[in-house]
Specification:
CATH topology of the largest domain: Serine Threonine Protein Phosphatase 5, Tetratricopeptide repeat
Order of helices and strands: HHHHHHHHEHEEHE
Radius of gyration: 19 Å
Shape: globular
Oligomer: single chain
CATH class of the largest domain: Mainly Alpha
Mean pLDDT: 79
Strand order of the largest sheet: 2-3-1-4
Helix content: 55-70%
Number of strands: 4
Low-confidence stretches: 1-24, 144-153
Number of helices: 10
Number of domains: 2
Structural class: alpha+beta
CATH architecture of the largest domain: Alpha Horseshoe
Largest sheet: 4 strands, antiparallel
Amino acid sequence: MIKTLKNFIFFASLLFFFTEKSFSQEYNIVPLLKKIEEGKSGEVKEELQPLLKRNPGDPSLLFLSALLTEDGAKANEKYLKIVKMFPKSKYADAILFRIYNYYTAIGNEKEAAGYLKKLKTEYPKSSYIPSVEKVAAIDVEENQTKEITSSKSENYRFTIQVGAFSNIKNAEALKADLEDSGYEVEMTEKNVAGTIFNVLYLGKFEDKTSAEKIRDKVDLDFQLNSRVVPKEK
């Protein structure tokens, strides 16, 4: 029920945004966005490539490319570049919202708070702001439920977050590769304002230094950009 409500909030605000704004200088991607909502992402990817070749610097098309990127970290890199190059693009507040989602999913509260503040400051009337506030209220309720029902936690303080993927198949593939190399990996689903991320955590460590040593080896061996994070309470 909670997950369904979150998805409704996210897509309702998304469609409102797509239909209310119009920037003539940018390519109209609304029909393509509607196809994504209908589950036709593969078809949209094929249509997008020739459009990008003809319009390589169009921020709306770059936003669509980021939206279709299944690796959360790579998608976030694309969003950050668009914000830097086109701070006033048609989908600027949508992009800030997605960046906020990503940092929230990976537990980087400082960055998430920064981009949420930027969203609220620069786009105080954005349809995404109520979505964030409603989901925050739902999350409080979920956390209270977890505190009541959770059993005694394991005795460790840190773990390594090795990835966050919107496509579960990509998450499962990396998880399998890491486990084949002897690492202990757990996958957790996080729903951030209707966006589902499959987050991978590797290992359980008593101290941060030990975790950082393993992180450096994993990053080198698997070409990752992982981070040591505290165990979730």
